[in-house]
């Protein structure tokens, strides 16, 4: 899963990105991920892995990971710009969701590109650039479809009507994600690869002092209002504090969070929130060699989930032996769970659930 970090200059993107890359120091364990200077990889925190590790004593524990891409260059006029503008657009097209950092802290020493703090204006500036980029692409598609209309195929008529309604929506300054589509329309719209269709998580960057009294932050309230308008979520971070947390050893981290009156780091919250907006869940595999979490989209069936591990597992899928994590923990051992009939044998149509501890049976 890939998340793109966007936001105006001087809102705290690099600070947050630094925290991410520092926290993800062990990314060398993930050779399958492409590591570039603007990519940071972090493990998805999952305490179930530690509990399973106590049970299995594995040689290694492998959490699932998220890639964060720092998307620089998104400023007013970027969609019209050459070079840099195009580069950021191609980066942003590749991500699954967008984390939009919005400045909600005041600091006289740090200039704001527009002279003052204004979450609504900031969000609109960025969203407009993305809307412009989408409009440009959509217009090209409309031109092509117009030519196809002559064939008399009704399919093109349906597409055209949909494109026109998306265009009108974008022209009113709203992102495509705030539209609702039926399943047929959704399929057509997905083919457009619109940037503003991607889910967005707004990250309100507040000052260190405001972390303990968020209600007092009027910028945050403003941000929540715009996010609610388009059905997106807001989370609060303090990028500066995240940077400090990322430098601490695990033991110090807990003490630091407690002293700050926080129950988890902003980065962990960000990862969990991203998981939620993307509709992701994890299933788990456990054995003496490895205890591991695997990311799948909610609704994935057993063979496709198996395919995450290896394509052979999907092709030769026979069945999955599954015990729910909570059941396994309550029983204490896999064998006890089996005796109690809690280890189920599931077939091809089984829809995987979050926390399924799974053993796939397959033919090679
Ligand atoms: P970017 O241009 O969006 O990447 O912004 P930076 O991460 O470079 O941050 C711009 C300035 O704001 C830097 O001087 C940061 O130290 C400062 N800054 C970022 N986050 C915070 C924060 O949470 N609190 C305070 N006080 N300053 C911050």
Question: How would you describe this structure to a colleague?
Answer:
It is a single chain. The chain is of the alpha/beta class and 364 residues long. It is built from 14 helices and 12 strands. A hairpin with a 3-residue loop joins strand 8 and strand 9. The protein starts with a strand and ends with a strand. It has 3 domains: 175 residues, 3-Layer(aba) Sandwich (Rossmann fold); 67 residues, DNA polymerase, domain 1, CATH 1.10.150; 64 residues, Ubiquitin-like (UB roll) (Roll). The strands form 3 sheets. Strands 2-4-1-5-6-7 form a 6-stranded mixed beta sheet, sandwiched between helices. The model has no long low-confidence stretch (mean pLDDT 89). Helix 4 runs antiparallel to helix 5. The longest helix is centred in the middle third of the chain and has 31 residues. The site of guanosine-5'-diphosphate has 16 residues, from helix 1 and helix 8.
Q: Which structural class do you get from the secondary structure elements?
A: alpha/beta
Identify the bound ligands.
guanosine-5'-diphosphate
Termini, distance in Å?
Answer: 28 Å
The number of E-state strands comes to: 12
The number of distinct helices, counting runs of at least 4 residues, comes to 14
Taking strands numbered 1, 2, ... along the chain, how are they ordered across the largest sheet?
A: 2-4-1-5-6-7
- Average residue-wise pLDDT: 89
In which range does the helix fraction lie? 40-55%
- Give the CATH topology of the largest domain: Rossmann fold
How many domains in all? 3
Radius of gyration: 23 Å
For the biggest sheet, the summary is: 6 strands, mixed
């Amino acid at each position: 899963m890939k998340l793109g970090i966007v936001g105006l200059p001087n809102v705290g993107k690099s600070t947050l990105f630094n925290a991410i890359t520092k926290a993800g120091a062990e990314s060398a364990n993930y050779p399958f991920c492409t590591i570039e200077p603007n990519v940071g990889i972090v493990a998805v925190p999952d305490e179930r892995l530690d509990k399973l590790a106590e049970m299995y004593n594995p040689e290694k524990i492998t959490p699932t990971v998220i890639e964060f891409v720092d998307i620089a260059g998104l400023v007013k006029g970027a969609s019209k710009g050459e070079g840099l503008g195009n580069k950021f657009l191609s980066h942003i097209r590749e991500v699954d969701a967008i984390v939009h950092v919005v400045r909600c802290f005041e600091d006289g020493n740090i200039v704001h590109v527009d002279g003052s703090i204004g979450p609504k204006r900031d969000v609109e500036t960025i969203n407009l650039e993305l809307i412009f980029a989408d409009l440009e692409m959509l217009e090209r598609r409309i031109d092509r479809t117009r030519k196809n209309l002559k064939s008399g195929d009704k399919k093109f008529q349906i597409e055209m009507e949909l494109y026109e309604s998306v265009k009108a929506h974008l022209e009113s300054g709203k992102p495509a994600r705030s539209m609702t589509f039926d399943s047929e329309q959704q399929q057509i719209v997905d083919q457009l690869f619109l940037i503003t269709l991607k889910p967005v998580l707004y990250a309100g960057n507040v000052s260190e002092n405001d972390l303990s009294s968020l209600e007092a932050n009027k910028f945050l309230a403003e941000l929540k209002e715009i996010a609610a308008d388009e059905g997106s979520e807001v989370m609060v971070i303090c990028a500066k504090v995240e940077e400090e947390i990322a430098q601490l050893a695990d033991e110090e981290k807990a003490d630091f969070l407690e002293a700050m009156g926080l129950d988890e780091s902003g980065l962990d919250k960000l990862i969990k929130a991203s998981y939620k907006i993307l509709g992701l869940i994890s299933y788990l595999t456990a054995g003496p060699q490895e205890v591991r979490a695997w990311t799948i989209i909610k609704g994935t069936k057993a063979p496709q989930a198996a395919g995450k591990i290896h394509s052979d597992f999907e092709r030769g899928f026979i069945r999955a032996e599954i015990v729910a994590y909570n059941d396994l923990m309550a029983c204490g051992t896999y064998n006890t769970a089996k005796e109690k009939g809690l280890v189920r044998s599931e077939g091809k149509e089984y829809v995987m659930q979050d926390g399924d501890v799974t053993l796939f049976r397959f033919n090679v």
